[in-house]
Amino acid sequence: SFTSLNTITIPDSVTSIGDYSFQSSGLTQITISQYVTSIGQDTKSPLYWGIKVPNTYMYLGNSITKVALYDNDSATYTANIYIGGDNAPEKLVSTQKFSTKGSKTMFEVELSTPVTIDPTQPLWITMYCDELYYPASACISQNNPNSDYISSDGKKWDHATEANLPYTWMLRAYVKDAK
């Protein structure tokens, strides 16, 4: 069953968050998705899933310092951050192995190698797990074509929607001023 979404209405008194201006965008609400399901295969086998941020110019001068995923089940995961690549991740720039406990919350992981954002290249945030049948936590699709990449080998990437899986991965990246 689907879990409802949390919608936050942005009051007129809030004009910006960070460098993002609500006044010029016309944005009046933000929808925060909740966990719906986990995606995987019918056997414990390697699974890669991730998101691509094609335009990173607004993060010029920032670094990714940590990532997060929804912790549905106890397992060991690997977070991989890549720079470049249109249809698949290109250059691996950070990798971080970590274990979760199945806390049913967003689980944050500090990167031992922070990633300086290159505003001329797409950024990929991917996860890998081979211990669970269904490791990729997902929410209702956010209708973003870059939020549902999936792969069984880490080389050929497809959209989950192509397999009739209308979801968005519950992944986050946190940025910090690189100075």
SSE arrangement:
Layout: E1 6-9, E2 16-17, E3 20-21, H1 22-25, E4 29-32, E5 35-39, E6 47-53, E7 62-70, E8 76-83, E9 91-99, E10 106-116, E11 123-129, E12 136-140, E13 149-151, E14 158-159, E15 167-169, E16 171-177
Antiparallel strand pairs: 1-4, 2-3, 5-12, 6-11, 6-13, 7-10, 7-16, 8-9, 8-11, 12-15, 13-14
Question: Helical content, roughly?
Answer: under 10%
What is the terminal separation in angstroms? 45 Å
Shape: globular
Strand content: over 45%
Low-pLDDT regions: 1-10, 14-32
How many strands in all?
16
N to C succession of SSEs: EEEHEEEEEEEEEEEEE
Q: Note the total helix count.
A: 1
Structural class: mainly beta
Q: What is the average of the pLDDT values?
A: 81
Radius of gyration: 16 Å
Q: Describe the sheet with the most strands.
A: 6 strands, antiparallel
Question: In what order do the strands lie side by side in the largest sheet?
Answer: 9-8-11-6-13-14
Can you describe this structure?
The chain has 179 residues and is an all-beta fold. The protein has one helix spanning 22-25; strands spanning 6-9, 16-17, 20-21, 29-32, 35-39, 47-53, 62-70, 76-83, 91-99, 106-116, 123-129, 136-140, 149-151, 158-159, 167-169, 171-177. The strands form 5 sheets. The chain has a 6-stranded antiparallel β-sheet with strand order 9-8-11-6-13-14, with no helix packed on it. Strands 5-12-15 form a 3-stranded antiparallel β-sheet, with no helix packed on it. Strand 13 and strand 14 form a beta hairpin. The longest helix has 4 residues, at 22-25. The protein is globular, with a radius of gyration of 16 Å. Mean pLDDT is 81; it is low at 1-10 and 14-32.
